[in-house]
Amino acid sequence: MENYAFVILIALGIFLIGWVVSRPSLTAVPGGKILAFIAFFIFPLVATVLGASIHLDHSKSTQFCLSCHVMEPYGKSLRIDDPTRLPAAHFQNNRIPRDNACFTCHTNYTMFGDAKAKMRGLKHIYVYYLGKVPEKLALYEPFNNRECLHCHAGARSYTETSPHKEMGEQLGSNQMSCLTCHTKTHDAAQVDKAKMWKGDGT
């Protein structure tokens, strides 16, 4: 819906600008000046804000994250047919929204986590097109339990099972990493050797 509104806004703006440029006499009257102001300033400003909002929202999508060649193995790892693999188990069992899988797990759930993730994404785009992509990709900082507990804290399947029940305090305070036990993550280097899940991953 937003995309249609954006296209209509752009088309209407172009039409109004063309009309004012082709008939400059319109600006001789107050109504024409208002029309020119709307065409040249208001429409472009609204279109810029709406366009930025649409693109920022799209940048959260799994499709966008995996559109870079270097990220393809990470996308494939979401389909590994192995329930012990953390990303695959979350993706295949709808524990995270499939359309926003990457952003859901790799966003810091802090006050500015959303903005920080998007800024990192812009940096990735810059490196991909204008810089040198490192041979081995790595997280900027160790994975914080906060990102896991954002969804799992309070869930019965988490609070009533071992060792979560016994280690709740250490996990909650990040003294012990969730990845101490859940060690099987993307393993992008080995993804082509793995058996793939053939279910609906759209």
Descriptive notes:
The radius of gyration is 24 Å and the shape is elongated. It has ten helices and no strands. Helix 1 packs antiparallel against helix 2. By secondary structure, it is mainly alpha-helical. It has two domains: 2-58, no CATH class; 62-193, Multiheme cytochrome fold (Orthogonal Bundle), CATH 1.10.3820. The model has no long low-confidence stretch (mean pLDDT 88).
Labels describing this entry:
single chain, 202 residues, mainly alpha, Multiheme cytochrome fold, 2 domains, 10 helices, elongated
Strand and helix order: HHHHHHHHHH
Q: Per CATH, what is the topology of the largest domain?
A: Multiheme cytochrome fold
Q: Could you list the spans in which at least 5 consecutive residues all have pLDDT below 50?
A: none
Question: What percent of residues are in strands?
Answer: under 5%
Q: Give the CA-CA distance, first to last residue.
A: 20 Å
- Biggest sheet descriptor: none
Helices, strands, pairings?
Blueprint: H1 2-22, H2 30-58, H3 62-65, H4 72-77, H5 86-92, H6 101-105, H7 113-130, H8 145-152, H9 156-159, H10 168-172
Helix pairs in contact: 1-2
Entry summary:
By secondary structure, this protein is an all-alpha fold. It is built from ten helices and no strands. The protein has helices at 2-22, 30-58, 62-65, 72-77, 86-92, 101-105, 113-130, 145-152, 156-159, 168-172.
